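G., the chain you wanted modeled:
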Amino acid sequence: MEMNLQLHHVVSDITGATGMRIIRAIVGGDRDPEVLAAFRDVRCKSSVDTIKAALVGNDREEHVFAFTQSLELYDFYKAQIETFDHSLEAAVAALTVREDDDLAPLSKARIKGSSTMRRPSTCGPHSTVCWAQT
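Predicted structure as C-alpha cells:
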C-alpha cells in the first residue's frame, strides 16, 4: 500500500494473528508503532523492536482510507469463501456411496505381446547403421 509500512518483511503471514491484529488496529485509528507492535502474537518470530521499526510509515488520511477499503474487501471475500465452503461441505455430505452388487465384474486387462511392441528405429539421428547405408 501507499502507507509504506514494511509489515510483510517482519511477519511471515500478514493474514495471520499478528498481521491482522496490527492491520485492524491501524484501520481502527492506532498509528503509534509502539502500540501496534504490542499486538505481536507470542508465536511471532520477529521481535517487538523489529516490528516497531517496520511500522514507521506515511499515514496520510487518503492512504488509510484505501487501506480500510482493502481490508473491507478482504473481509468480504473471506466471508464469501467461508459461505461457499459451508455449502460445499453440505453438498458433499449429501452424497451417498452406492454399492451395486449386480454390476458385472470387469474383464481382464489385455496386455499386448512383445510382437506388437515398437522396435527402436535403425535410422535415427544417433544410429550408425543409417550413416553406413548412405
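The radius of gyration is 31 Å.

Shout if anything looks off.
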